[in-house]
Amino acid sequence: MSAHPRLSLNQATVKRASLAEALEACQAAGIPALGTWREPVQDLGLAEAERMIADSGLRVSTHCRAGFFTLPEGEQRRASIEDNKVAIEETARIAAAGAPGSRAVLVLVAGGLPGDSRDLAGARGRVADALEELAPVAADAGVTLAIEPLHPMYVTDRAVVSTLGQALDLAAPFDPAVVGATVDTFHIFWDPEVVAQIERAGREGRIASYQVCDWKTPLPADVLLSRHHTGDGVIDFGPLTAAVEAAGYTGDVEVEIFNEDIWAAPYAAVARRTAEAFSAAVAPHLA
Amino acid sequence: MSAHPRLSLNQATVKRASLAEALEACQAAGIPALGTWREPVQDLGLAEAERMIADSGLRVSTHCRAGFFTLPEGEQRRASIEDNKVAIEETARIAAAGAPGSRAVLVLVAGGLPGDSRDLAGARGRVADALEELAPVAADAGVTLAIEPLHPMYVTDRAVVSTLGQALDLAAPFDPAVVGATVDTFHIFWDPEVVAQIERAGREGRIASYQVCDWKTPLPADVLLSRHHTGDGVIDFGPLTAAVEAAGYTGDVEVEIFNEDIWAAPYAAVARRTAEAFSAAVAPHLA
Fold it and tell me: I need a surface site. Which of A115, A132, A200, B29 has the fewest CB within 10 A?
């Protein structure tokens, strides 16, 4: 089988697969790249994961994910910052182990309101502070930090960064090679400003990753798991993908789906379906 | 009992109450105003509803709700536009029946994507078209149309207007006395631009209604019913209410809650709890 040459399977789409199983599923479906997640890499140990990725011949498109740095100063915040530094190092090594075209991009999810706090502005300020602390570390490691705006329904419990414009504002003080943004259709398709902000992200050189999956209602009981194969929902991938292309993004396009039914399916079947859905719904809009 | 002098109970908070029961619940709790809904008014007939509101001595703060005009041209769209005209007439008459200080404000929910459409931009364009058609009718009736941005989790199935900025852009071509916006904390508190857009709404004279209720996670299985009494969730009513006040809004502040548990409680108890929660969480931020 062969899939689109720019398709990457984000490992969250086969959440319960080991790294070996995820790589095999990609190979069986002809998918040339994987977006790795930290847990399955750590389950193996970094050295073994590097070896396995190198042997696979696959590219690495991103490493997911770090962030979660909205806590106020203190022991827990320090632990989070240190963990982000570990993730930066992982990202550099994993990407170096991947096939040519691999990209050392670490996806960052900001984190929600800590404890009983109602202070969104304060939490957002602490994201900016964390980036200031981590950017030099990422620069030294040759890693791009990719701030991911998450859908506003996750604003209080998962990510206080809710729009691409806000992510770009947070990235603005830094070198675009060091701090960029993740453009994920699911999270930002609703935004009346989305095309204008993708254009801006392109002008500013900040599209570090393009991720796709679909939106469909009614949302399931756990709204975190409300993501679908491309084409199974109501997102129009045409204008969004065209805008990302026009903005100059030439990297892999990741399919990242959180969905209990998809997680329960055999990994190879999920990878195959991912490739087919991507070919139908997204690939026609790629150059 | 007495409640804050600017508190209004939106009738959706006691969804299963008749108009008479809703008015009684307000009176028992000392709440001086009601935001009416169309269905209980229509259950009685407009003339009887007018009489009942006049007898109550309560103010009317808004009439809820019309809109739902994202359909493409055709019979169903015409029916929706005609229904909006009926709602405009209802609004004028209901407000005239209310005590001094009543406001003829019709809340508009835009509607979602029609049928199998994926065309958000097209649907948004049809909202603009509908406003153009309805604004002269509203102007003749002395009614303000209050476009309500809804949380982006409702964008495809309920309201393609998702931010206050977008609502203000839609309102911009019209006289602010005729087309304004509803500022509802639940729907827009997450927006990094929210305070700036409230300031803009004030400068442009477009705050037609201020509604409050709270946000809490996890969201319930039906995300439409995820609203809570003020203070029971994580919204910081201070900065939002201060911004609305500073923007020059002097009208009633409505509590509008969709919540199955609250709907199942006795109306008088809900009204009392609404007044108490409002006094604690919102009133301190009012001038």
Answer: A115
